[in-house]
Write a structure and sequence with these properties.
Layout (H helix, E strand, L loop, with lengths): L1 H34 L1 H9 L46 H10 L15 E2 L2 E2 L12 H5 L4 E9 L10 E4 L4 H13 L4 E2 L1 E3 L2 E3 L1 E9 L4
Antiparallel strand pairs: 1-6, 2-5, 3-4, 3-8, 6-7
Length: about 210
């Protein structure tokens, strides 16, 4: 009986020690949480996790590489083969025919025959200077020669009014010369080419001289 009591007392003393240890452990944990000691211990044991956000860099779409150049071979020109054709000599009659059929060189035409020309001027029954001599010039003894230019058709008639080409030195005599040349229309001798009357222009003299 005494041994049984001693065994129970030892058993209870061990239980009391374990119970006391557990209570102390709980008290210690509560104190640690209250004072932040547990948080520090956790940070020392396991450092905080840092999260780095890495942005994915999108690669720009690059254009596809160009296709390789197509090399065209230049066409190869093959020269035509030399072909020699042997022809039989032509008979001698052909040579004679060729000479006969050649064009004959014609002699150059002769130069044109020169045209025979004759000049025009006052013709038959042309007015007399005495009929157109100014009376004032006669009284003043004025004399002189005027050169008149006239254009005449094939019929001997004037084609336009005559003009004074060279003065006589006296205005009255110059005016009289123009009147005389105008009055002579139809009485001019036309110029001719190979005997055929043609239109022409020519100068001629009208001389005023006093009779003694």
């Amino acid at each position: 009986m005494a041994a049984h009591v001693q065994h129970d007392s030892g058993f209870f003393s061990r239980r009391a020690i374990v119970f006391f240890f557990i209570v102390c452990l709980h008290v210690l944990l509560i104190y640690a949480f209250a004072t932040g000691l547990a948080r520090r211990a956790i940070e020392i044991v396991a450092p905080p996790i840092q999260t780095d956000i890495v942005e994915e860099v999108k690669k720009q779409d690059q254009p596809p590489p160009p296709p390789p150049p197509q090399m065209e071979r230049p066409p190869v020109e093959v020269p035509p083969p030399d072909v020699t054709i042997n022809t039989a000599p032509e008979p001698s009659s052909t040579a004679i025919t060729d000479v006969t059929n050649r064009p004959v060189r014609q002699a150059p035409p002769p130069p044109p025959r020169p045209v025979v020309r004759t000049g025009g001027g006052p013709g038959k029954n042309f007015p007399n200077t005495e009929d157109f001599y100014p009376e004032a010039s006669k009284r003043l003894n004025e004399e002189g020669t005027a050169i008149v230019h006239a254009c005449v058709g094939p019929d001997g008639r004037l084609e336009g009014t005559p003009t004074l080409q060279e003065s006589s030195g006296k205005s009255r005599l110059d005016q009289a010369a123009i009147k005389l040349a105008t009055a002579g229309s139809g009485k001019y001798k036309p110029a001719t080419e190979d005997g055929r009357p043609v239109k022409s222009c020519f100068p001629f003299k009208i001389k005023f001289t006093l009779r003694g």
